[in-house]
Recover the amino acids of this structure.
């Protein structure tokens, strides 16, 4: 439509608007409630309608995430790394779309938005590399006073709910979900309330990246409305409150205490900086096994 | 109800193979499209809050908690029976299930745990699930289960004979098993609707079962691909409704297999209420043959009680 070369006598082409949908269990459902809300750009201009998720969408997402957990946690770290890298590859091919969506959502210039999208793609690559290395960093052999091998190894926490950052709609989103799934957790992410479109589009990328359905589930809508049932849900193992304001975060943390969820409290984060391993280790448990070394011969261990 | 009252009422129809065939084929035909549409539309009712709480408790009280595996151990049966008595040990207001359903050799084990409770023991018999054995063997199977203390016998019909058109053979077998149960056990007759291929056949089988003296008619064994579905349960419900209208005898219905979620169970209860009415909304007349359904009902019950979604970590896995 923006082509100036078309002559005035030709009929104007009708716009094809995209119906943004949730991404749950590898499928693209509308909200169970049938509700949508208007998403506007930084200047208040209408962009699209996004699904306004209800607590039942949250419940369905937990079921999907739990179902996917066994397979994803059981996949080899190497395989998870390949899939995360594949996500980067897929994003690279759809960069233009994400640059436009990020520019509209956050009011950035095209070149700034392009830098943000590049950083997000690089973030997937960064975490893809970490999948088979985090075990060596946080696990290892423990010296014990006895004839035993004593080995600690990190294990994923389980189903993790993530409240994505409200301001950084894409780089921030990737920075909070990639470390969670890199270690084998599955995630239910609540997209930025006012800028959910990049997150919903990311679902389309994830669906074509060999990522098993249900490993990442994207919900959009009112953060407080969706987060409350998830924080109280007995089948969610951890919650990342990055996108919550301080009052909401306090309420959710109280609800989360009921089944001893791991909680990551919100704090100011510069998502363009080097991410480090903090978010990787936030959702890991440590399993320690003892194994007898066998009888010690005259020359030391039998092994 | 005197044992086998229907035999007298249908003496003419069961006089010969030909008469029985004419009777069964004279039953009104079923419109499959209409039946499925009816069953689907009744599945769209929204049952919420207090009605849902009532439906959940009713459904729990109607469950025949079932384990029918080659790998059943006495320990597993004992655990299942204990769960039937106290489905949710953290909430003693939870109703107990109607019965536990086991193989005949496990009846005594279950009976021992259930002593003193109102939970009944149902036993499958007659060479379950295929029903491929000679009549004396089937009757011995039933005798064995009844002697071990089974309160209910779930028999399978001979689908081979039914599909071959030997209706009288099937009828006589049911009547013989009925006689073997005597007054000690209620008889459930399993048709294995997934193997009967048409809705008309399911209706014929339902009548055949009721004429033979069934106290319950039951959809399936849970061992084939297609088990209880809303349409085939609707056929059974219509059959018991018509049978009571004609003879005054009330017969129970038990869908079994494939009912796993609270939502499904509530749909079946709606089906019962809308087809045969409140007379059947009692565990004396309606049962669910299920095992994992109970876990989902308990999770939903906890959700209603606490407002939080529960998870599989908080119910037993069996």
């Amino acid at each position: 439509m923006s082509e100036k070369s078309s002559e005035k006598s030709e009929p104007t082409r009708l716009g094809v608007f995209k119906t943004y949908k949730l991404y749950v269990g590898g499928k693209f459902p509308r909200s169970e409630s049938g509700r949508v809300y208007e998403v506007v750009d930084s200047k208040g201009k209408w962009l699209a309608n996004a699904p306004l998720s209800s607590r039942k969408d949250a419940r369905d997402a937990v079921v999907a995430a739990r179902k996917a957990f066994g397979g994803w946690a059981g996949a080899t770290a190497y395989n998870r790394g390949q899939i995360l890298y594949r996500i980067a590859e897929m994003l690279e091919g759809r960069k233009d779309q994400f640059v436009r969506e990020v520019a509209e959502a956050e009011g950035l210039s095209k070149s700034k938005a392009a830098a943000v999208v590049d950083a997000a793609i690089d973030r997937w690559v960064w975490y893809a590399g970490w999948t088979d290395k985090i075990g060596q960093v946080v696990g290892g052999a423990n010296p014990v006073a006895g004839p035993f091998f004593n080995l600690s190894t990190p294990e994923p926490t389980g189903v993790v709910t993530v409240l994505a950052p409200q301001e950084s709609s894409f780089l921030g989103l990737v920075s909070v979900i990639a470390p969670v799934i890199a270690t084998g957790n599955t995630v239910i992410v609540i997209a930025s309330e006012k800028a959910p479109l990049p997150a919903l589009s990311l679902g389309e990328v994830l669906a074509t990246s060999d990522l098993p359905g249900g490993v990442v589930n994207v919900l959009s809508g009112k953060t407080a409305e969706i987060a409350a049932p998830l924080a109280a849900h007995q089948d969610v193992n951890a919650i990342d409150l990055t996108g919550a304001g301080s009052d909401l975060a306090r309420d959710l943390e109280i609800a989360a205490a009921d089944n001893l969820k791991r909680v990551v409290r919100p704090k100011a984060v510069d998502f363009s900086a080097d991410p480090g391993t903090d978010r990787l280790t936030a959702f890991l448990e440590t399993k320690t096994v003892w194994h007898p070394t066998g009888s010690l011969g005259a020359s030391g261990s039998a092994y | 109800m005197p044992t086998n009252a229907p035999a007298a009422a249908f003496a003419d129809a069961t006089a010969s193979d030909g008469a029985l065939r004419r009777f069964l084929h004279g039953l009104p035909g079923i419109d499959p499209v209409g039946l499925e549409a009816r069953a689907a539309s009744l599945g769209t009712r929204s049952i919420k809050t207090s009605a849902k709480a009532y439906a959940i408790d009713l459904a729990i009280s109607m469950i025949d908690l079932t384990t029918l595996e080659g790998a059943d151990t006495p320990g597993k049966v004992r655990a299942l029976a204990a769960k039937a008595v106290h489905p949710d040990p953290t909430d003693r207001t939870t109703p107990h299930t109607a019965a536990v359903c086991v193989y005949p050799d496990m009846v005594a084990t279950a009976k021992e745990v259930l002593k003193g409770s109102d939970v009944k023991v149902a036993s499958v018999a007659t060479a379950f699930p295929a029903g491929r054995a000679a009549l004396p063997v089937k009757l011995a199977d039933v005798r064995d289960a009844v002697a071990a203390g089974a309160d209910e016998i779930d028999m399978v019909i001979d689908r081979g004979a039914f599909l071959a058109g030997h209706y009288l053979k099937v009828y006589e077998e049911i009547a013989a098993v009925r006689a073997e149960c005597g007054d000690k056990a209620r008889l459930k007759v399993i048709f294995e609707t997934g193997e009967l291929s048409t809705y008309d056949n399911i209706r014929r089988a339902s009548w055949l079962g009721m004429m033979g003296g069934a106290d319950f008619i039951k959809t399936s064994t849970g061992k084939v691909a297609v088990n209880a579905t809303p349409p085939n349960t609707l056929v059974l419900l219509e059959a018991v409704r018509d049978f009571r209208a004609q003879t005054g005898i009330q017969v129970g219905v038990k869908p079994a297999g494939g009912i796993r979620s609270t939502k499904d169970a509530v749909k079946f209860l709606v089906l019962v209420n809308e087809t045969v009415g409140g007379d059947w909304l009692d565990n004396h007349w309606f049962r669910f043959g299920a095992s994992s359904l109970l876990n989902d009902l308990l999770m939903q019950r906890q959700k209603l009680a606490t407002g939080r979604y529960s998870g599989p970590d908080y119910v037993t896995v069996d």
